[in-house]
Amino acid sequence: MVVWKNTTDGVQDNGLTLNGFLFLNTLFIQRGRHETTWTILRRFGYDDALELTDDYLCPLIRVPHDCSTELNHFGYQFLQKIFEKHDKDLDGALSPAELQSCFRVFPYVPWGPELYHTVCTTDKGLLSLHGFLCQWTLVAYLDVHRCLEHLGYLGYPIFSEQDSQVHAITVTREKRTDLEKGQTHRNVFLCKVIGSRGAGKSSFMQAFLGKNLAAQKESLGRQTVYTINTVQVNGQEKYLILQEIDVELEFTKVSDASCDVACLLYDVTDYKSFNFCASIYKQHYMDGQIPCLFVATKSDLPQTSPQRSISPAEFCYKQRLPPPIYFTCNSHGAPNSTVYAKLATAATFPHLNDIDLGAASFWIRVALGATVAAVVGVTLYKAVAKNK
Q1: Of 46, 209, 280, 340, whose Cβ has the fewest other Cβ atoms within 10 Å?
Q2: What is the CA radius of gyration of the chain?
């Protein structure tokens, strides 16, 4: 009532406008009630220097070894509201100006131009809601403290009426427990894409965003070592992160090979590229529990045959690995996404490391067939013996 009586635009829809809020605090200060204004500021996370405190921006979160961090449904709901708030033209996408408006409360721009090569965009090259949520999922997985900071700038604790933005994050259980139980509750998986230079790693990652070779050549801008999208695994939506690995620079210690699934990429026109992947597999993955898939790129081109070495299919068979998956992004439409679903499935069921799910069902059918044949054989034998 005080604001309404003393201003012409201080109250709107039974709430305070910016001018009304400023008038009210000016009134407090003029009447010597400075502590009231400071109480308001501190409620919104500000310290005595009018800077957001570390306790507000970076609340304590404990992430045990071998666990990962994901946004939960509270976080996704909040981010969807943020997206819709800044989608002024209601076209289902954020233009550069709308995205800049979203980050206006940040002291820096958190996402660079590589964003448009990291997530899916609309036909016009704008950031869709799907791409927006994928980018947040990526940040939450790779750097949860940065994600919490960003959520703090957007006011998650205030709008969600929670103590901190940790409320928007789920810390998964240890991967060791997932392996013991034969199942996982994780929704986000990391796949390292490994291969020699020229094997097609960058093209493979951009194809994950639905871009064929022609679209990739037209796409300008800075490339990225990460791409993220969703895939279906047994009817459930999972987030799959692809990370392009430069083995010569990044495989300096054992932990560098750590991931949820390894994609060993080789060029069918260059057998040396397969030898490179086979060497990486033997060195870093053969004795571990990380599922691996060999992917043969440029499958639309003639395949070279090994002179003296075994073929990729024979190598995979001997190592009890699924056979190589053939892939090309030199297609008219969007590249085939089957390979990405297989990678996500392998990550979701790591205890099936030595056989792929298709092979598993095959051997189940073989076992059932053998059982039926045995029963029939015993029955015939008894019948013949009885007649004798």
Answers
A1: 46
A2: 28
Distance of CA 173 to the CA centre of its chain: 17
DSSP code of 52?
Answer: B
Number of Cβ within a 10 Å radius of residue 104: 9
Q: Which residues pair with 16 in a beta bridge?
A: 11
pLDDT tens per residue, range 179-232: 888 888 999 999 999 999 889 999 999 999 999 888 888 876 667 899 999 999
Residue 373 pLDDT > 70: no
CA 62 to chain centre: 21
Here the tokens at position 82 are 């943020």
pLDDT, tens digit (0-9, with 9 covering 90-100), for 157-188:
999 999 999 999 999 999 888 888 888 899 99
Cα(130)–Cα(352) distance, rounded to whole angstroms?
A: 30
Q: Are 86 and 94 in contact (CB under 8 A)?
A: yes
Which residue matches tokens 């990526």?
A: 138
CATH number of 186-355, picked from 1.10.10.10, 3.90.380.10, 3.40.50.300, 1.20.1250.20? 3.40.50.300
> Residue 386 in contact with residue 378, Cβ under 8 Å?
no
Q: How many residues does the chain have?
A: 388
The single residue listed with the structure tokens 């009447």 is: 31
Q: How confident is the model at residue 100 (pLDDT cuts 50, 70, 90)?
A: very high
Rounded CA-CA distance 286/377 in Å is 41
Look up residue 268 and give its amino acid.
V
Reported CATH class of domain 69-172: mainly alpha
pTM: 0.85
Correct CATH for 2-43 of 3.90.550.10, 3.40.50.2300, 1.10.238.10, 1.10.260.40: 1.10.238.10
